[in-house]
Amino acid sequence: MRDRFPAIEPNFTGILPVSPIHSLYYEEVGNPDGIPVVFLHGGPGVGAQPAFRTFFDPQRFRTILFSQRGAPKSFPLGELAENDTWHVTEDIERLRRHLGIERWFVFGGSWGSTLALTYAIRHPERAAGLVLRGIFLGAQSELDWMYRDGASRIYPEEWERFLAPIPLSERGDLVSAYYSRLTSANYATRLEYARAWCTWENSIIRLIPRPPKEEEDDNIIAFARIECHYMINRLFFPSDSYLLDHLEPVRHIPVWIAQGRYDIICPVVAALELSRRLANCRLNIIPDAGHSIIEPGIASSLIEGIETLADQYWS
């Protein structure tokens, strides 16, 4: 079992304007001359966090972390305009060019795995390899599992709490019902429903639950708004199987997947389907883990993954 590395401070932090509206927070951690790797956070809307720095040997890697559009530390916080999969994908490429990096490893979990695959499909020459967790392909069946019928059968009491704020007449489309409230002009309404949205996800994210960390109200609203915005738009993909249908550019790129056996948010079937379609992929199903990146088995596999790919595919 591999332990995470001690928490360290960034060598550098910056703000990168990417549109007339959006500017992104980013940071560099570790060895400035090390092997470059970009960390893509989940959600969408989670933002860069200190814990994400601990998956990379600071003597070996030059790790780039950033907060995607609207996420905490980037601004405007919670902004939904010009915030979609395609804009965020190209933001990764803007950041790479800004930092003068030729190629890098791409590391992402959950929504971050979706974004990593999308980026690699569009810019395969820039992705030295992918280290992924909790595969999410953006299919309607995955959205239905999370917000209609699936996870609700495993956590029925938490599901009832998620349903409770929504009138019976609107429960056939919970994502739309929440979205109308998360985009309300009333701050108190946005906060109430953002807390309910986040409580559902936090309740099912780990195999062994633990109390969620405290977050500022504005960050809670931003996360819930952005995530719901992407879900109601089905991740902005033109078809239900967009990623699986466009894997040819990345079929031979080395891919390492860490997948919790008891991942309730992103069930293992998506990881299995993806791995079968890639020529150079190692799928690691962690027998005692759920969805969270900090569960020991998941963290250990991710650390092993980035180091294995660096050993075998970086020169």
What would you say this structure looks like, in words?
There is one protein chain. Helices cover 38% and strands 16% of the residues. It is of the alpha/beta class. It has an 8-stranded mixed β-sheet, sandwiched between helices. The protein is globular and about 60 Å long. The two termini are 27 Å apart.
Please tag this protein with its features:
single chain; 315 residues; alpha/beta; Rossmann fold; 2 domains; 8-stranded mixed beta sheet; 38% helix
- CA-to-CA gap between the ends? 27 Å
CATH architecture of the largest domain: 3-Layer(aba) Sandwich
Gross morphology: globular
Quaternary structure annotation: single chain
Give the averaged pLDDT, no decimals.
97
According to DSSP, the number of beta strands is 8
Biggest sheet details = 8 strands, mixed
Number of helices: 11
Rg? 18 Å
Question: The CATH topology of the largest domain is what?
Answer: Rossmann fold
Q: Return the CATH class of the largest domain.
A: Alpha Beta
CATH superfamily of the largest domain: Alpha/Beta hydrolase fold, catalytic domain
Q: State the strand order across the main sheet.
A: 1-2-4-3-5-6-7-8
SSE series: EEEEHEHEHHHHHHHEHEH
Helix content: 25-40%
Count of domain modules: 2
The residue ranges in which pLDDT falls below 50 over 5 or more consecutive positions are none
Proportion of residues in β-strands: 15-25%
